[in-house]
Amino acid sequence: MANIPVGLIGCGGRGRGHVRALHALTDVELVAVCDPVAASREQVGDEWGVERRYADVEAMLDAEELAAAIVATPAHLNAEAALPCLERGIDTLLEKPPGMSLGQTRALKEAAEASGARGMVGWNRRFDPLVLQVREEIESRGPIYQLVGEFHKSMSGFIAGGRFPEIVMDNMLLESPIHAIDLVRHLGGAPVAEVNSFVRRASAYKDVHAALVVFENDCVAQICANYTTDARLERYEIHGRDISAYIEGISTCELVCDGERKHLQKEGTDSTLAQAAHFFDCIKAGRPIGPPAADLDEAIATMELATAILAGLRDGA
After folding, report:
1. CATH class of domain segment(s) 4-122+272-294
2. 38, 115, 119, 235: which is deepest, by most CB within 10 A?
3. Architecture of domain 125-267+302-311 in CATH?
4. What is the pTM of this model?
5. How far is the C-alpha of 115 from the C-alpha of 103, rounded, in Å?
6. Using 50, 70 and 90 to split pLDDT, how confident is the model at 232?
């Protein structure tokens, strides 16, 4: 079959990561790139031999016959860039978050339903080989009973760097910690039944987040996202019957079971590559986006949970 023609929107660091994944796949061809920053689009175009380069999304969509689009823009632009692709019936893999509000995410779903396009959000922890391995090990013994998800970064560093606009600065939960929110919700295995949260501003922005989440199957989860710290930290706990996994930095894991502590290292396909392969396999097979991926229904559910956590902002905080 002919290669699937793909356009890339967003040529920064995340976009370049997606390009590397694309070039590891067969039957996929990056035919155009788009970024308003000339240096970024020229760098990607030159490095990967992509001749057709655009500064505007609509201009690219008007000129190209794309079967798929990868959206890897800054967080506050993901939904804005993905919407016209979905409206035109172009299957779209977009970076997280799928909008800075639940309304934006729902608009993506509505556009996809109207055009018949597939939409998938790049929550690649769902494809992480370490996560997949320990989930299979734990669920072979019974259900998951309890989860912990943490994602911390330094707000001071972002303030000093001036990288993000105000809408992102005051909603950093949606930037990186949304990975932890989505993975915990995914592993919870049932709809969310109850959310109790506490959010405050220790700085000028929301930077302390803690939530207790109960799922309809009585699995319970704790989610913590702190931006008063000095450095990035990501970790998870997954507890089942007589077995627990402690995942550090999504790269190493201590699996405790059968009276032993097993130290696991990540092996297998890179999660971004596995995610891209799944997306294009769905396109080639003509099937909907399915598990473990996050389709737009899953995106709405995760954004509903994130919105419920943010609703815990205390008066005056």
Report:
1. alpha beta
2. 119
3. 2-Layer Sandwich (3.30)
4. 0.96
5. 19
6. very high
